[in-house]
Specification:
heterodimer; A: 327 residues; mainly beta; 4-stranded antiparallel sheet; 28 strands; 5% helix; disordered N terminus; B: 389 residues; alpha/beta; 5-stranded parallel sheet; 4-stranded parallel sheet; 14 helices
């Protein structure tokens, strides 16, 4: 295990120091992690100009804001520790243990725990961020990926890409409550507005499975179709809910489009052409712009959500993975 | 490292009621397999096996433990060896009587027909790429997860076509396998419009009287005319291994050395491939080869088919599921894989590698097919010689 007391001490101090600090201002930037560059690209969320590059750990993937938005926690697939970046100085201020080969993670409501999918081990690790201590390691199906904590914080959902299922884990007992079979190669999650539905993208199922969070069962499967493309070319991965809760935006991977899905009717509306292999998607604060990272064209397409039209495509790092908009 | 999931799985299994259904999968391998002699395995010739295939089948079963537990299905992998087609047939018959659901085969192509005749068990060939059991010698219950030679040749031909390396110097070895595979290569070259500049036999020999046959410089001299690429057909591998960088003209080598089309290759970076590689390395203490991948996929296909009938997977229900057109598999190659109805070959992309990286994937961009582009690799429905349905 990669427990590093020195780093942890630094992190503890860093957390303490910021605990009483004023809430950090929104930086107005979009942060894009790129798996091959060991860095994050920053883009001005208004002008859409690339403003710089932040050096980070090896193979950065999932990111989340910490300390009221003052810091950014970055999971690093190929480093032994993950990175905590101060957004004011754009410098790494601490190394955080998120276990070996973390892919995605989500935070507990109090921000103290990280639930991390450990791709290599086939486990969901529960990690106390301040100490880096693994509180619990829960074995799940191979290649766990998407992690999502329920709005009430009582459950954490994790996909297994190999077992084709969603594991539902009780955050108090760390027991698996239910294993739900979904489509092929399930990847990421998003809740609907009231949290009654959990949407799961099935990369090789060319579909989204909609899970009732009350019954813990699949209530609908929504297949995607793109004119002129075969189902095999449609590989949905990233998804996010519109700010008004009415639309779900789903990146269709190799189909190079983003689908606008009406949440109420579960019908696909607009399909917006973006770059090659549209994966990670993120919204700005007012929901007017959707940022879509294109894993195979090393760029990011910004979509005007009202017009359902691509506005601009900006170059980012090599093999971009995720975008986090902090405007 | 202790895999905690196994402890959990074992406990779960112990807690299951005695009435839980069991899925029995046979794995039939050749006894005294000379391909697996220590010294030969050490040479690690491309597309040749690196060890017995049961490890990969076991791994596929273990990785499915959550789904099996969910369905209250127990799994048993029964590994046996045979040193003749007769022994292989007897083993398959015994499994049939004992209620096994299917058998994964790593047998020589010539044994498969006689060994499988008369059985109704689904048989999944993971170990031999010969096209005969995929064509005229096919059986109605015989599936193939390892790509056939024609698929491999088509993949390379596509790559050459895409690069406009149309002028090919073909070098072929003396063994009957080489002769058969040469015919396959020529058919693929014809399909993709590649031109044979010259076809030359080679022979492993340092005899000065045979230097025209054994010396790479003489074999590839310019007297044959200009060529873009050398395609070497060497089923053994010893000659091909030392051909790249020894040609008279500075031209790449493809086929059984240089750029090779395989079911699986190391250093493939996408679609969860590195994770699969690492899991196999941990389980087997060696890298995953093409046949290992094929055996893993056979195991995965059978578990997945059985999970659709968890109450009691039988040979008949598994067979029916495997042949369903919408039965698809995730093979860590980014697209859904399925069995072709005409010869029950698993359609799949092939990886082209020089042993260092995955240089290209077939079907290459731009190749088209009216139904499924994966069917541009290997015998398509109209040309298939398999008549057993």
């Amino acid at each position: 295990m990669m427990f590093k007391p020195a780093f942890i001490a630094v992190l503890g101090a860093a957390l303490l120091a910021t605990a009483f600090a004023a809430q950090a201002k929104d930086t107005g930037l979009a942060y894009v992690s790129s798996e091959k560059d060991h860095s994050l690209t920053t883009i001005d969320a208004k002008t859409l100009a690339v403003t710089g590059v932040i050096k980070t750990c090896k193979r950065p993937r999932h990111m989340a804001l910490l300390d009221g938005g003052a810091k950014l926690l970055v999971a690093c697939g190929d480093s032994k520790t993950s990175d905590l970046i101060d957004l004011a100085t754009k410098q790494s201020v601490a190394k955080v243990n998120l276990g070996d080969d973390p892919e995605a993670f989500d935070l507990s409501a109090d921000g103290k725990l990280a639930y991390v999918s450990a791709e290599e081990d086939g486990a969901l690790n529960v990690i106390e961020i301040a100490s880096g201590k693994i509180v619990k390691s829960i074995p799940v199906g191979k290649e766990p990926e998407g992690v999502k904590v329920s709005p009430d914080g009582k459950r954490v959902y994790v996909t297994s890409e190999v077992a084709n299922m969603v594991h539902v884990i009780d955050t108090a007992t760390y027991q698996i409550v239910k294993n739900i079979n979904v489509g092929k190669r399930p990847r990421r999650f998003a809740f609907n507005a009231d949290g009654s539905e959990l949407w799961v993208t099935n990369e090789l199922g060319a579909s989204v499975s909609i899970v009732s969070t009350k019954d813990l069962a699949v209530v609908a499967t929504l297949p995607f179709e793109v004119k002129g493309m075969r189902p095999d070319d449609i590989t949905p991965v990233g998804l996010t809910l519109a700010k008004d809760g009415k639309t779900m935006y789903v990146g269709l991977g190799r189909a190079n489009h983003v689908a606008f899905v009406d949440v109420a009717t579960r019908k696909v509306g607009n399909l917006v052409l973006v770059g090659k292999r549209a994966w990670g998607v993120g919204l700005n604060k007012d929901g007017s712009r959707l940022f879509v990272v294109n894993g195979l064209s090393d760029d990011m397409t910004v979509v005007d959500t009202a017009a359902a039209k691509a506005v601009k495509t900006v170059p980012v790092g090599r093999v971009p993975y995720m975008v986090l908009v902090d405007d | 490292m202790i895999d905690r999931r196994w402890c959990a799985a074992a406990l779960l299994a112990a807690g299951l009621d005695a009435g839980a259904a069991t899925l029995t999968i046979g794995v039939l391998q050749r006894a005294d397999d000379e391909r697996l002699d220590d010294k030969r395995v050490e040479l690690a010739y491309p597309a040749q096996p690196g060890g017995t295939l049961d490890t990969a089948v076991q791994m596929a079963a273990k990785e499915s433990q959550f789904e099996l537990d969910n369905a209250k299905l127990q799994i048993k992998i029964d590994v046996r060896t045979a040193n003749s087609p007769e022994q292989a047939k007897a083993a398959i018959q015994q499994w049939g009587k004992a209620g096994a659901a299917a058998v994964v085969l790593d047998l020589p192509a010539a044994w498969i027909g006689p060994a499988g005749a008369g059985s109704t068990l689904p048989l999944l060939n993971a170990g031999d790429a010969n096209d005969a059991p995929r064509g005229a010698g096919c059986l109605p219950n015989l599936f193939h997860t390892l790509p056939g030679e024609r698929m491999r040749a088509d993949a390379l031909a596509q790559a050459l076509m895409a690069r406009r390396w149309n002028r090919v110097l073909v070098l072929a070895g003396p063994s009957p396998d080489d002769t058969a595979r040469l015919a396959v290569v020529q058919a693929s070259m014809k399909r993709y419009g590649l031109k044979t500049v010259a076809l030359k036999p080679f022979k492993m020999s340092a005899d000065p009287r045979e230097r025209e046959l054994g010396n790479p410089l003489l074999l590839t001299g310019t007297s044959v005319g200009e060529y873009d690429v050398v395609w070497v057909v060497d089923s053994d591998g010893e000659f091909a291994r030392l051909l790249p960088f020894r040609t008279a003209l500075p031209r790449p080598v493809v086929g059984d050395a240089g750029l090779v089309a395989e079911a699986w290759a190391r250093h493939f970076e996408r679609f969860g491939a590195p994770q699969l590689d690492r899991r196999f390395q941990r389980a087997a203490q060696r890298p995953m080869t093409g046949p290992d991948w094929a055996a893993y996929m056979a195991g995965k296909a059978l578990v997945q088919a059985a999970l659709e009938q968890p109450a009691g997977p039988t040979a008949a229900t598994v067979m029916k599921t495997l042949t369903r057109p919408d039965f698809t598999l995730d093979g860590f190659k980014g697209v859904r894989l399925s069995f072709r109805p005409w010869d029950r070959q698993l359609r799949q992309p092939l990886l082209m590698t020089d042993g260092v990286g995955v240089i290209a994937i077939a079907p290459v961009d731009g190749v088209m097919h009216p139904k499924n582009v994966l069917d541009t690799l290997g015998a398509d429905a109209p040309e298939s010689a398999c008549k057993a349905k």
